[in-house]
Amino acid sequence: MKLVKYLDGYSKAGNYGGRIRSDCEVILEKSMSGGIQIQLTSKVKTMYGPSIEQLAEEVVRHFGFEHLHITIHDAGALPFVISARIEAAIRQLIETRVEYLPQERDEKVESTAKDKFRFSRLYLPGNTPSLMLNAGVHKPNGLILDLEDAVAVERKPEARILVRNALRVLDFFGAEKMVRINQVPLGLCDLEFVVPHGVQLILVPKCESAEQIKQVNQKILEIRENDSDQGDIWLMPIVESALGIVKAFEIASAASNVVALAIGLEDYTADMGCRRTVEGSESFYARSVVVNACKAAGIQAIDSVFSDVGDHVGLAATVKRSKAMGYDGMGCIHPRQIEIIHKSFAPEPDEIRRAQEVVMAFEDATQRGLGVVSLGTKMIDPPVVKRAERTVRLATELNLISSNWRNENE
What we know:
Elements: E1 10-14, E2 23-30, E3 36-41, H1 45-62, E4 68-75, H2 79-93, E5 120-125, H3 129-132, E6 142-146, H4 156-169, E7 176-180, H5 187-194, E8 201-204, H6 210-223, E9 234-239, H7 242-246, H8 248-252, E10 260-263, H9 265-272, H10 284-297, E11 300-303, H11 312-325, E12 329-332, H12 336-345, H13 349-367, E13 374-375, E14 378-379, H14 382-397, H15 405-409
């Protein structure tokens, strides 16, 4: 039996009431006798009541409780949510490093490619399970379980547990598994709940120095010290202040696992004391600095979110400007933005055609042993070839051209 140290006699975690769905509220009250007593309120109690009660008892006994009164107000929560809420309430009662871990999905979580296309990344509040469950069906390039701005300060401890469980059991439908931790140093505590459980990319918000990236990586190394099956965990710092912009290249080049640098314009404009506009003239300098820092460091540049989810025309225009500046993707806060972002970042037909011509000219010159590559009357430099190869690869992945395009163009 585990040693139980009581901190208080009453605790509560989770959400219930109003329009809450796919969640539950758990209330724990300690007792010295009577065993495990469970009071369940649920619309599906007739069908699933016994399994919910069995899970609740299993979780509390896992933490060493023999006597406890449990009240559960269920609003259609899945088992990984129920167990997370119970564990969060238990951690308010006792000091423990024990975890109750739900069974992982069968497929092994592999590291994603460093140069994976990251046109879109969809933010999901880390303490709202209903928004997580099927978010992957919208096909963003990445899904961000957000522990920072989307979670109230007093709810962060329970959000960490829910995000941990979600990483283990949810189907991300091929989207990159991302978590935005809190600003360092608070965010270092978040890492213990996500690093061992399949996260592929960690966003580091309000980053203002390379030292913060080093602290994150040092914590990751400490957590994974005894992990013999280690894949890469990528980092995407977010610069959101005047100081962050000044330090952009320092941050972008801080570590080999930094694959992208993002800009957060809501916080940046607040720090500058100006209003964010659709035209973006107030942030043009900052966005240019970020793109230049990323290109110099050889990583991806990721633009800020577009906050008006109803303005599809404005979003498309913003993406076009972003692409023209050299950005490789942007954040989104609603699934309806994903398709517009993908279409607007995708190469145009004339871009694809020109890129194919450059690649074929380069391959022809290489086969003939020529040291100089030309297309018509223009010389082709290596950076031009590299950009063309990327455009062709992207067009192929997006099914804009076939993988057999060389033969088709001969």
